[in-house]
Amino acid sequence: MTTATAEKPIILKGDDKVNRLVKLVEKWSKDKDLDKAESSKQFLKVIEEIGEVADALAKNKPEELKDGIGDTVVTLIILAQQNNLTLEECLETAYSEI
Q1: In Å, how far are 32, 63, 87 from 19, measured between CA atoms?
Q2: Please, how many CA atoms are within 13 Å of residue 65, restricted to the half-sphere of its CB?
Q3: Which of 5, 12, 38, 42 could be cross-linked to 16 through a Cys-Cys bond (beta carbons 3.0 to 4.6 Å apart)?
Q4: Strand, coil or helix: what is 3?
Q5: 10 phi and psi, to 5 degrees?
Q6: Is the pLDDT of residue 48 over 90?
Q7: 39 and 79 in contact (C-beta within 8 Å)?
Q8: What torsion, rounded to 10 degrees, do the Cα atoms 44, 46, 49, 54 define?
Q9: Tens of pLDDT along 61-78?
Q10: By C-alpha distance, which of 57, 7, 32, 61 is closest to 74?
Q11: What gap in Å lies between CA 89 and CA 59, rounded to an integer?
Q12: What is the Cα–Cα distance from 17 to 12, expressed in whole angstroms?
């Protein structure tokens, strides 16, 4: 008997790749009902991941740094989603102020 496995979607290049990854994270969080979870708890996850980034920097571990930055972005996407915002909106706002 064979079991069906979920295949990872084809990942694109450049801007399309980033947009697709953001959409995949948003879908994943909705599937897990994280989009409706408490923002204060999600913010603790953001801080936890930032701690992992700091640890990777302190220990000069580039692969762990890459993972930590990626995990931080994932937690921020979900935090934005919980507050009816998108990553794009947040980046546009930040960019307009720099």
Answers
A1: 20, 23, 10
A2: 8
A3: 12
A4: coil
A5: -70, 130
A6: yes
A7: yes
A8: -100
A9: 999 999 999 999 999 999
A10: 32
A11: 34
A12: 4
Between CA 65 and CA 63 the distance in angstroms is 5
Q: How far is the C-alpha of 7 from the C-alpha of 23, rounded, in Å?
A: 16
* Higher-confidence position of 4 and 20: 20
Helix (H, G, I), strand (E, B) or coil at 1: coil
pLDDT band per the 50, 70, 90 thresholds, residue 92: very high
At 44, list the tokens.
């603790």
Which pair of structure tokens corresponds to residue 46? Answer: 């953001």
Q: Are 80 and 87 in contact (CB under 8 A)?
A: yes
- What is the band of 10 on the pLDDT scale with cuts at 50, 70, 90? low
